[in-house]
Amino acid sequence: MLNSLSGRIERAFMPIALAFSAAALLHPPLFIWLKPHIAPALGLIMFGMGLTLNVSDFAAVLPRWPLLIAGATLQYVVMPLLALMASTLFGLDIEAALGLVLVGACPGGTASNVICYLAGGNVALSVTMTMVSTALAPLLTPAIVYALYDKQIAIDFWAMAASVFWIVVFPLVDGLILRRLLRRRVEGLVRVFPSISILTISAVIACVVGLNQHTILGLPLLVLGAVFLHSAAGFGVGYAAGKVLSSDRRDAVTLSIEVGMQNSGLGVALANSFFSARAALPGALFSLVQNLLGVSMARVWKQRIRSGKVTGAFR
To answer: How many whole angstroms separate alpha carbon 72 and alpha carbon 77?
Structure first.
């Protein structure tokens, strides 16, 4: 019965995410209480991912360093330029444009690892790419914003490193160790884990929607259009690069998700600290758009993987 319920939840991924978000839009208190618990929620999902992986999965990533370099290059060169192009195309004012470029110059978000897992991508590669882009962020994010807009910002390297450690690395390693020690005893948990992940990430997205209710209901169509184009283009460019660099479609799926999903929370925090609420608007909208795009694409990719259309070499 538990496996049957888990399967139903997996098949209803997108409807669940949309229903949660709609409920949060109508009545934010249903989900905004989750705000202080978002990091532990993501950590719980990363722990579950650790249960599904082996140390050998990460060892296999190291020889594939061209994918890591490509991911970092797309993250810090292509995404800021795409943000600049989208801002120009939609005629955004300087503050909104700056905010969108700031999001484009941020590292990959931890939610990308969750979406990658749910999409059936290469989770070890996804986690490694997130850690690489995050390590580069304290240097590259301020440098990109200064180069494009001559604006000074500062990022606390150790705070970012601590955040990634406690949300991503620590729970993931715990899961890896537990699987190695218990092996068959955790198989039941591994089978139902995808449904737990779906409910958790849907609740996190709904929390973001609830926290930004006034922004979303204000319908800033030009900014929303630019944000949607920026994120969608990131997914597309990442997938195209993955096809060129790897014969395995799972790598292309992973690169797509890593490039299309940014640490928009960092973008919002930096915009509020150094610029204005208007500059924080693209980051708030980006968080919603990237997660809903990621959820819908994860469902499609997962179905294609199950049917055998994604795993293996391109044809």
So the answer is: 8
- Angle 257-260-262 from CA coordinates, rounded to 5°: 105
Which pTM value belongs to this model?
A: 0.82
Query: pLDDT for 162-174, tens place per residue?
Result: 877 888 788 888 8
Q: Write the single-letter amino acid at 247.
A: S
Strand partners, 248: 313
Structure tokens at 23: 């409920």
Q: Which amino acid is at 58?
A: F
Q: Which two tokens stand for residue 293?
A: 């795009």
State the Cα–Cα distance between residues 204 and 290, nearest whole angstrom: 13
* 306 confidence band (pLDDT: 50, 70, 90): low
List beta partners, residue 151: none
CB 168 within 8 A of CB 130: yes
* Phi then psi dihedrals of residue 262, to 5 deg: -110, 165
> Between the CA of residue 58 and those of 64, 125, 127, 129, 185, what are the distances in Å?
10, 7, 9, 11, 23
User: Could you give the residue ranges of the DSSP H alpha helices within 151-220?
Assistant: 157-164, 170-182, 187-211, 213-217
Helices 277-306, 264-274: inter-axial angle, 10-degree rounding: 180
Both tokens of 225, joined, read: 């259009």
Q: What share of the chain is helix, strand, coil (3-state, %, to 5)?
A: 85, 0, 15
